[in-house]
Amino acid sequence: MTRALAALLVISWILLGMPEITGLDVWVHDVMPRPEWLRTTAYVVGLILGPTIGWAFAAVLFVLAWRRRDLRLWKALALHALCCATLLTRWLFDRVRPIEHHLPSYPSGHTVAVASVGFTMVVLAKRGVLWAALAVLVAGFARVVLEMHWVTDVIGAVLGVTGVGLVAALALGLVTSGRELVPHLVRPRRDP
To answer: What are the pLDDT tens digits along the chain (192 aa)?
Structure first.
């Protein structure tokens, strides 16, 4: 079941990136109010919840894995790197941003970084899904408010990181089932 979910997420991520922009993108872009205080807050959020947190997390994982000689932490670092690598696909999709910018838009790099940290933390701690989801929502919302990304860029980043993350976590032996990541949200299986 987990493999099927991972495949569905990856396929959805690819398909969502195919059109240049969608009607949802245009609608959200046009109706979202952007007062100055919200833009300022979004800018500050983007400084913290973005590539900075992704690189800092990778550095901490590296130091901990090196000092503790812990194979599980090395695997977590590989998982984080593979999740972050979904960002490299932005040159394949080559989507334009809502404003003039030199980098392609899909998927959102800030959202990829935050989702990668959140996913890796959930895999390591086996809890914290709601905190990770909240951080991703805040980071993604900030990118849309600043008009740096379309809303589907943010959604696509989450789909890509989660799909690739599930495949990688299974392959690295960090999880055996997606149920391990959200045990409190899943009903226990009945014995036949």
So the answer is: 677 888 888 888 888 888 888 888 889 888 888 899 999 999 999 999 989 999 999 999 999 999 999 899 999 999 999 999 999 998 888 888 888 888 888 899 999 999 999 999 999 988 888 999 999 999 999 999 998 998 999 999 999 999 999 999 988 988 877 666 766 665 666 666
Q: Domain locations in the chain?
A: 2-17+36-182
Q: Is the dihedral of CA 161, 162, 167, 168 positive or negative?
A: positive
For the chain, give the secondary structure using H, E and C. CHHHHHHHHHHHHHHHHCCCCCHHHHHHHHHCCCCHHHHHHHHHHHHHCCHHHHHHHHHHHHHHHHHHCCHHHHHHHHHHHHHHHHHHHHHHHCCCCCCCCCCCCCCCHHHHHHHHHHHHHHHHHCCCHHHHHHHHHHHHHHHHHCCCCCHHHHHHHHHHHHHHHHHHHHHHCCCCCHHHCCHHHCCCCCCC
pTM score: 0.87
Count of beta carbons in the 10 Å neighbourhood of residue 2? 17
List the one residue out of 99, 79, 104 whose CA is nearest residue 156.
Answer: 104
Half-sphere exposure for 161 (CA within 13 Å, toward CB): 32
